[in-house]
Amino acid sequence: MTHSDQKASTKGDGASAWIKAALRAMAQDGISAVRVEVLAKELGVTKGGFYWHFKDRADLLSRLLDDWRDGRIAAVRAVTEPKEGETPRDGLIRLLLRQLGNPNQRGLATELAIRDWARNDLQAAAAVEQVDAERSARVIALFIAAGMEPDLARTRAWYLYSLLFGQALVTPPQDGTAAMDKLAEDAVDMLLRTTREPIGQ
Q1: Cβ–Cβ contacts within 10 Å for residue 13, how many?
Q2: Model confidence, pTM
Q3: Is the CATH number 1.10.287 carried by domain 1-54?
Q4: Which residues of 56-73 are buried (b: 16+ CB within 10 A; e: fewer)?
Q5: Most buried of 32, 71, 91, 172 (most Cβ within 10 A)?
Q6: pLDDT score for 87
Q7: d(C-alpha 197, C-alpha 201), whole Å
Q8: 156: how many CB neighbours lie within 10 A of its CB?
Q9: What is the pLDDT of residues 62-117, one digit of tens each?
C-alpha cells in the first residue's frame, strides 16, 4: 500500500472518504457508477486502499446505505424536535421552511438515486422504508398534536412529504423570504384544515 493509500485508509476518515465519494458518484450517475476503480482515481489512491476498509463492493454499498439511512433519520429527528414554546403548527412551518429556504440539491439527487436503486435491491428498499417510516411517524405526531385524528394525520403527513420532495423539482418563488414564509404558512394551514370550506371563509 502506498503512502497516499494509507492516508486515505486511516481507520476513520478513510472509510468515510470512500463512502462520501460513492455517494457523490451515485447521486450523479446512479448506483452503477459506484465502481472501486473510479472512486480510487477520485481519491487519488490505488485500489489497494479500498480493501483496508471494505471486503468488496457489496460491503461498501451496505455501509453506504447505513450511512445514508442513519443520516436521514438523525436529520428528521433534529428538525421535527419541538422547540421551546413552539406549537405543532409552528413546527410544521419550520420543517417546510427548512426545505423551501435551503434546498439541498445534492441530497435530493442522492435520495432519488437511492430510491431508484431500491426498486431492484431489497437492502436499499429496506433502508428507504426505514427512513420513510421515521419521517412519517415524526410528522404524523405533529399533526396529531395539532388535534387531528390519526388516520387523517397519516394522509396529511403524506401530502406534506409529497410537497417537500416535489417543490425541489420546480422553480421556487422569486419574491424572497416573505414569499417563502407565506407559502409555508398557507400550505400548513391547508393541511391542518379538517373541513372543505375554502381558506378565508
Answers
A1: 12
A2: 0.83
A3: no
A4: eeeebbbbbbebbbeebb
A5: 91
A6: 95
A7: 7
A8: 23
A9: 999 999 999 999 999 999 998 999 999 999 999 988 877 666 778 888 999 999 99
Per cent of the chain over pLDDT 70 is 85
* Structure-block grid coordinates of residue 112: 432519488
Please report, for the chain, the start and end positions of each structural domain, with discontinuous segments joined by +.
Answer: 1-54, 63-192
Does residue 138 contact residue 80 with C-beta atoms inside 8 Å? yes
The CA distance from 165 to 113, in Å, is: 13
- The Cα 31–Cα 117 span in angstroms is 7
Q: Look-up: residue for cell 428498499?
A: 125
The answer on pLDDT for 141 being more than 90 is yes
Q: Which of 75, 91, 103 is nearest to 185 (CA)?
A: 91
Q: In the structure grid, which three cell numbers stand for residue 59, read together?
A: 460491503
φ/ψ bin of 85: left (φ > 0), alpha (ψ from -120 to 50), beta (otherwise)? left
Q: What pLDDT shows up at residue 166?
A: 80
Distance from C-alpha of 5 to C-alpha of 81, rounded to nearest angstrom: 41
Q: Say how many C-beta atoms besides its own lie within 10 A of residue 154's C-beta.
A: 16
